[in-house]
Write a structure and sequence with these properties.
Strand content: 15-25%
Pfam families: FAD_binding_3
Shape: globular
Domain FAD-binding: 126-324
Low-confidence stretches: none
Keywords: NAD, Oxidoreductase
Largest sheet: 8 strands, mixed
Mean pLDDT: 95
Protein name: FAD-binding domain-containing protein
GO molecular function: FAD binding; oxidoreductase activity
Distance between the termini: 51 Å
Number of helices: 19
Number of strands: 21
Oligomer: single chain
Helix content: 25-40%
Structural class: alpha/beta
């Protein structure tokens, strides 16, 4: 289709990347990016780029991806609990400073012929363009002003977190908890430059309040950082920080908002990135989603002669991928919200629980890619020596065959279902729903809780998540119905201590 003018609202990575792609595809169009901030001032620290994201960006625009990679910082992953630490090689995992990423994308947008206009607060009512791309972020003015047309739904998370940084490069990405007199704080930290690392720290509401951070959060102006929290956390994580300081950038505690919209477009306006959807930081990057949105939007506009058809194609292609990632991300968010409850597990077993927490990575696949780590974790789970753990292709059946609490394996006897003391509970809601929170807060008084429900995979994973919460809070034996085709999920659930026993259904 012929587009004479394109306006992009928002000069973040998604908006800049979309502007470059659209200008290259529509060279005669006037493409303008409107950003209310200024080029040398930005929020955030590092941005992670997984290998799959890099492949997608390379296929869409190899030149800009090469420039991004050139200024990125490679690293591995690790988890440290107390004095125990495990490392995990993670292929082509990269991170780049957000300011550096923006600088690269600004340069490539200009080279393509995009006009960048900074320091202007512009809404859809202020611009006259054939196409308006609203990439105006999680607090999207466009989505808010046109809420009746986009139909946004916003779900608030329970845990609190803050973004900060430090002035040295960690040896690798690290997940590490620290328990203080007020409760447990968990850091998600990773290096993104030779002298910088991101430090994201999260905690539960009760710990946050006991530490007085509800007061410091309220007292911190929007333009400043919560220095009370930064000073406290700098002392708490002093070992990981190796004597370095925590750096704020309008750093305040907040809760994560998962955003969904009934529609991503209306008239000649289309949402992109966080304006349309968000996914929890523990599983997916908003930057990744926004840039991949841009790729699909650009392709859809080339394929069609009218905006409505192009927008429909854009949504049809992107929604399944985004919905899938959001489901994984919500599951991961709940796992991290309850992370301190798992600290008694050996760190190798805990790393297995982390990698398989959302159903994205199977136990077998993880065993293939990190055999030494997984073998140690499985040995801890099976209470045996590492020599007794089989090869990766046999770990599922081996995990299900391990004895527990006087039983010879992890398979529930059929007569247990109807036995005295067994409560049969149907799980029909997501683990993070109000109904499931009530169930977990007021569980059935039973020695055995048997969870049943629908036979699709998401429902199976939901039962395993609810099962973990119940077994940790009640001490009851938890049994979960699992369709035969999801034996691998059952094994991962057992190894991760989400369930005691499983019952396979046909």
């Amino acid at each position: 289709m012929r587009l004479a003018s394109i306006a992009v609202l928002g000069g973040g990575p998604g908006g800049l990347y979309a502007a470059r792609l659209l200008k290259k595809s529509h060279p005669d169009a006037v493409v303008t990016v409107y950003e209310q901030g200024v080029p040398d001032q930005t929020f955030g620290f590092g941005v992670g780029l997984a290998s799959r994201t890099q492949r997608n960006l390379r296929q869409a625009d190899e030149a800009s991806l090469n420039a991004i990679v050139e200024q990125s910082h490679p690293h591995e992953m690790s988890m440290k609990v107390g004095d125990s630490q495990v490392r995990l090689a993670h292929g082509e995992l990269l991170a780049i400073g957000r300011a550096t990423l923006l600088s690269v994308l600004q340069r490539f947008a200009r080279e393509a012929g995009v006009e960048l206009r900074f320091g202007e607060r512009v809404t859809v009512a202020d611009v006259d363009a054939d196409l308006i791309v609203a990439a105006d972020g999680i607090n999207s003015v466009t989505r808010t002003e046109l809420a009746d047309e986009f139909g946004p739904h916003i779900a608030q998370g329970e845990g609190l977190y803050l973004w900060c940084g430090t002035d040295f490069a960690l040896e690798s990405a690290v997940f590490t908890p620290v328990t203080t007199e007020h409760g447990t704080f968990v850091a998600h930290a990773y290096p993104y430059a030779d002298d910088r690392s991101t430090f994201l720290i999260e905690t539960d509401e009760r710990t946050w309040q006991r530490a007085g951070f509800d007061v410091s959060t309220e007292a911190t102006p929007a333009s400043e950082s919560d220095q009370v929290s930064l000073d406290y956390l700098q002392a708490a994580f002093s070992e990981t920080l190796q004597g370095h300081r925590l750096i704020g950038n309008r750093t305040k505690w907040t809760t994560f908002r998962t955003i969904r919209c009934d529609s991503w477009h209306t008239r000649n306006i289309v949402l992109l990135g966080d304006a349309a959807h968000t996914a929890h930081y523990s599983i997916g990057s908003g930057t990744k989603l926004a840039m991949e949105d841009a790729i699909v939007l650009d392709r859809a506009l080339l394929e069609h002669d009218d905006l409505e058809s192009a927008f429909d194609t854009y949504e049809a292609e992107r929604r399944p991928a985004v919905d899938h990632l959001q489901a994984i991300a919500e599951r991961s968010m709940v796992w991290w919200d309850n992370f301190p409850e798992r600290l008694a597990m050996p760190v190798e077993q805990l790393m297995i629980a982390y990698m398989t927490r959302a159903g994205k990575v199977s136990l077998e696949r993880f065993a293939e890619s990190a055999s030494g780590l997984v073998t140690a974790g499985l040995a801890a789970y099976g209470e045996c020596g590492v020599d007794d753990v089989p090869a990766s292709g046999e770990v599922v059946e081996w995990a299900l065959s391990r004895p527990t609490a006087g039983r010879s394996d992890r398979l529930a006897d059929a007569d247990l279902r109807d036995a005295d003391g067994t409560a049969l509970v149907e799980i029909a809601d997501r683990p993070w729903s109000a109904a499931m929170r009530r169930l977990i807060a007021q569980p059935p008084a039973a020695s055995t809780v048997w969870l049943t429900g629908a036979d699709d995979r998401e429902s199976t994973l939901d039962r395993l998540d609810v099962g973990e919460a119940l077994r940790r809070r009640t001490g009851a034996v938890v049994v979960v119905d699992v369709p035969e085709e999801f034996r691998a999920d059952a094994a991962a659930g057992a190894v991760s201590e989400r369930v005691d026993l499983v019952s396979f259904t046909s």
